[in-house]
Amino acid sequence: MPCLYLSTNVSLDGVDIDPIFSETTKAISAITGKPESFVMVLLKGSVAISFGASKSEPAAYGELVALGGITKAVKRQLIATLGTILQDSKLSIPKTRFFLKVVDVSTPSGSKL
């Protein structure tokens, strides 16, 4: 079951976050080959984040934990696709201000990809 935990310094008050949940779920499912019904997405806004010495510009940190199926190619595709979703969403988080940690828990020490 892939689980994506996203934290952002952007306030989610008044933002329709349903498309973010929908798009990230579909993308993770398609990229990892896991059914959408197995994908979990958590989203937290208004988190204090400093990125590049700036606390005021929109930024996000994500962790994706999966049980198998994470290769270097999958990791690259997840980072690019999720970065595009956050940039194009109402959150308007630039790809350059998004960091994603990808961990495959099926390997003894997590993925070193």
From TrEMBL:
**By its UniProt entry, which Gene3D superfamilies does this protein fall under?**
Macrophage Migration Inhibitory Factor
Read off the InterPro entries from this record.
Answer: Macrophage_inhib_fac, Tautomerase/MIF_sf
Recorded GO molecular functions are: phenylpyruvate tautomerase activity
Q: Which domain of life is it from?
A: Eukaryota
What do the Gene Ontology cellular component annotations say? Answer: extracellular space
One Pfam family, please name it.
MIF
Q: Which family does it belong to?
A: Belongs to the MIF family.
Its recorded name reads: Macrophage migration inhibitory factor homolog
